């Protein structure tokens, strides 16, 4: 599945789910593009294989196959993948129509609740320190603006909660 919308000036990185940096409560498909929850005990995080470097703009998409209460965004890598990446200062994401950063329960209203079939776009601007999200090609605007987002290395991150929740990376397609 290819990205449905790519903002101008953004890189669409090729990545897969990282078997070394994904919770053991998640099953990674053979092609390493899909993840399914196999243990529904609490949030757990999956990370992409490619880190995003400073002074660039990145765009990637995640398609929700099953589930609605899934945290999606970017994070520096964590020591404990059996928690949501957004519960700590290194993680930035959306969840259930709100933002989540350094909190398991608090965030500002943002966007809408996601549903199965939705394609969530993540725009990480490491030049200006911003993150924006889209749903099915409709941009929800800037969710975060912080100098922290211009420094270090961030990875695609998703944290589902319920048994059988499932999601998939939308791979970038080569240009003609």
Automatic annotation (TrEMBL):
One Pfam family from the record: SPRY
In terms of superkingdom, the source organism counts as Eukaryota
InterPro entries in the cross-refs? B30.2/SPRY, B30.2/SPRY_sf, ConA-like_dom_sf, FBXO45-Fsn/SPSB_families, SPRY_dom
Residue span(s) of domain B30.2/SPRY? 1-176
Q: Which PANTHER family match?
A: SPRY DOMAIN CONTAINING SOCS BOX PROTEIN, SPRY DOMAIN-CONTAINING SOCS BOX PROTEIN 3
What protein does this entry describe? B30.2/SPRY domain-containing protein
Q: Which Gene3D superfamilies match?
A: 2.60.120.920
């Amino acid at each position: 599945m290819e990205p449905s919308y790519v903002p101008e000036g953004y890189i669409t990185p090729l990545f897969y789910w990282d078997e070394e940096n994904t919770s053991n409560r998640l099953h990674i498909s053979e092609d390493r593009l899909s993840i399914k929850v196999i243990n529904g005990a609490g949030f757990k995080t999956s990370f992409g294989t490619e880190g995003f470097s400073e002074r660039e703009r990145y765009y990637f998409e995640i398609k929700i196959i099953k589930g609605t209460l899934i945290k999606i965004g970017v994070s520096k890598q964590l020591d404990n993948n059996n928690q949501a990446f957004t519960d700590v200062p290194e993680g930035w994401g959306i969840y259930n129509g709100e933002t989540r950063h350094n909190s398991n329960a608090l965030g500002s209203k943002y966007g809408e609740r996601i549903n199965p079939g939705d394609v969530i776009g993540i725009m990480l601007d490491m030049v200006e320190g911003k993150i924006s999200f889209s749903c099915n090609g409709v941009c929800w605007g800037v969710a975060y603006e912080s100098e922290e987002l211009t420094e270090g290395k961030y990875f695609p991150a998703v944290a589902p909660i319920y048994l059988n929740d499932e999601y998939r990376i939308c791979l970038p397609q080569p240009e003609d």
